[in-house]
Specification:
- With 308 residues, the protein is an alpha/beta fold.
- The chain has 12 helices and 10 strands.
- Helix content is 45%, strand content 14%.
- It has a 6-stranded mixed beta sheet with strand order 1-2-3-5-7-10, with helices on both faces. A 4-stranded mixed beta sheet has the order 4-6-8-9.
- The two termini are 32 Å apart.
- Keywords: Signal.
Length: 308
């Protein structure tokens, strides 16, 4: 099944948000249906903790829970939305893993297509919910699709265990959910191509030096303390100001919905290539179906093992 750019653009445009918010106290979000997210609200700040198996893989359960939560905090005249959302992980080794390769591996079913398209909706929501600042607190591996989502949050802060990068080109694919576009914006075209085409990883200090991370902290405690302090400070100020500031920068700097939709359709086209499918078969075997083994832990560096 081929998804057209026009179809995706129509769907993504429907996620553009522009509405005032209500002033009632912020309430605790509803429990995530699949239990992959937990929530802690303090003042105008909500901390969202990811907990989805050994590597926090981006599978249909996590995609559904993320999409449901993000849709629930769209600006509304009848509900109050958080000024800041911090994403962290309960797993000390993984912030976010890759998009589940099973979703893109043949045979392609309607359920797999639905999950992949729902994944592509997450980035526009992170960008277009302009009444909320999204912060990634990264102190673990953040690989593939997880790296892509973190890139499309508003700020990223790294701890000593941060290890992040893409391996999609090694599978004969492209970073098709907007991640490569945002990476190029953050660290410049030449650097982005260096890391994308060679599947190189960033550690915390390197990522901070290149502008991928706002700041690097040498301990997890220092990371969490700094992020909390920043979030609470942002949360003091009026939400209308936050909305206008984020909207202005997004409108000026972000890829258009048309470019994001084209990125997705190009990914899906490459995914139909027999070369990519053969590489994905080998990838699933080497990673033991993406379990927390030595191969998965050393991504993106280990992607070259597909060619040995």
């Amino acid at each position: 099944m081929r998804i057209s750019t026009k179809h995706l653009l129509t769907s993504l445009s429907a996620l553009l948000i522009a509405a005032p918010t209500h002033a009632d106290p912020l309430t605790q979000p509803a429990a995530a249906k699949h239990g992959t997210l937990s929530f802690q609200t303090t003042g105008n700040v909500t901390r969202v903790t990811i907990n989805n198996g050994p590597i926090n893989i981006i599978d249909p359960n996590l995609i559904t829970d993320l999409l449901t939560y993000l849709v629930s905090i769209q600006p509304s005249t009848t509900t109050t939305t958080p000024k800041v959302v911090i994403f962290d992980s309960s797993n000390p080794d993984w912030f976010l893993g890759p998009l589940d390769t099973v979703l893109t591996h043949n045979p392609i079913t309607q359920d797999k297509i639905t999950a992949t398209i729902n994944y592509s909706y997450l980035a526009p929501l992170l960008q277009n919910i302009t009444t909320t600042a999204f912060i990634a607190e990264i102190n673990g591996r953040n690989i593939g699709g997880g790296h892509e989502l973190a890139l499309q949050m508003d700020m990223r802060f790294a701890g000593p265990n941060a290890h992040t990068g893409f391996f999609e080109d090694g599978l004969g694919l492209t970073v098709g959910g907007g991640g490569q576009l945002f990476l190029g914006q953050l660290i410049n075209k030449g650097r982005a191509l260096e890391y994308l085409l060679s599947a190189k990883a960033f550690d915390g200090p390197t990522g901070a030096a290149l502008g991928l991370f706002n700041e690097y902290y040498p301990t997890g405690a220092a990371l969490t303390s700094a992020v909390n302090t920043l979030a609470q400070r942002i949360g003091l100020f009026p939400q209308d100001a936050l909305n206008d500031t984020k909207s202005a920068l997004d409108n000026y700097l972000n890829p258009s919905p048309a470019l994001l939709a084209t990125d997705v359709t190009n990914f899906l086209a490459l995914n139909g290539n027999p070369v990519s499918q053969a590489l994905q078969t080998k990838f699933l075997a080497l990673s033991d179906n993406e379990t927390d083994g030595a191969f998965e832990k050393n991504l993106p560096e280990d992607i070259t093992e597909l060619y040995q």
